[in-house]
Amino acid sequence: MNTSHPGNVGATARAMKVMGFDDLVLVRPRFADVLQQEETLAFASGATEVLERARVVDSLAEALDGVQFLVGTAMTPRDFGPPCSAPRPLFEGLAARAPRPSLGLVFGSERFGMSNEDVYRCHALVSIPTHPDYGSLNLAQAVQLLAYEWRQALGGFPVQARTKPPELADAQAVQGLLTHWQQALVDIGFLDPAAPKKLMPRLNQLVNRAGLQSEELHILRGIARAMQKAAAQDKSPC
Fold first, then answer.
1. Do domains 6-153 and 171-235 have the same CATH topology?
2. Could you give the angle at the alpha carbon of 23 between the alpha carbons of 80 and 107, nearest 5°?
3. Which of UniProt's keywords are assigned here (predicted)?
4. Which residues are bridge partners to 80 per DSSP?
5. Alpha-carbon torsion, ordered 17, 70, 138, 140, to 10 deg
6. Per-residue pLDDT of the chain (238 residues; tens, 9 = 90+)
7. Crossing angle for the helix pair 87-95 and 139-153, nearest 10 degrees?
């Protein structure tokens, strides 16, 4: 409502897109061309389709088409009006309803928040829990937090895993590494082949516990080569 900063509009579009939402309605923004301004597009960071779908209207009433449950954002408690709660319990309750109502979130202007008249139109209010000594949230930050909470109430998105799990080194390659390390340790004088004790079996157990990946094994082979090269240089005549 009455947003005055183009950057906030762009950042809001970005916040919505990453949570899978695209229905943005601006009520009496300060600049009529805010959706096309350079700052808006820069802060949208690629979420241009949200801006392209966005509507600009003159009143909150015009923005409510298709909205069945309207939630306002209010940091300051009101003496009169709809109940206020934290976002998570409210959204979880709405998501569990059958049928689930279509949700609309109303954000006030950056400077003045929501007017009492607009608050009274809402079915409920949410207040984002913040540190009691400092609760100042940028408009786009508030949109991001509430969009995240609503998406989580709807089931969320799966965490993107690696497309290909790392490849573990096979036992033959591990034994090749240990043979290489044994010779390198002899070359630098760390291992006495006449009295090896249990050094190599212990190293064998160590690498087995580590579960070396193939790339890691190659790194250790490279270290062994560097050790042998350094030992050879030390033994070479000046």
1. no
2. 30
3. Cytoplasm, Methyltransferase, S-adenosyl-L-methionine, Transferase, tRNA processing
4. none
5. 10
6. 778 889 999 999 999 999 999 999 999 998 889 999 999 999 999 899 999 999 999 999 999 989 999 999 876 555 677 889 999 999 999 999 999 999 999 998 877 788 888 888 999 999 999 898 988 888 999 999 999 999 999 999 998 776 777 888 999 999 999 999 999 999 999 999 888 889 999 999 999 999 999 999 999 999 999 999 998 888 776 5
7. 40
CATH number of this structure's domain 6-153, picked from the four choices 3.40.190.150, 3.30.420.40, 3.40.1280.10, 1.10.150.120: 3.40.1280.10
Q: What topology does CATH give the domain 171-235?
A: Helicase, Ruva Protein; domain 3 (1.10.8)
Instruction: With 0.85 as the threshold, say if the pTM is over it.
Output: no
> What does the domain layout of the chain look like in residue ranges?
6-153, 171-235
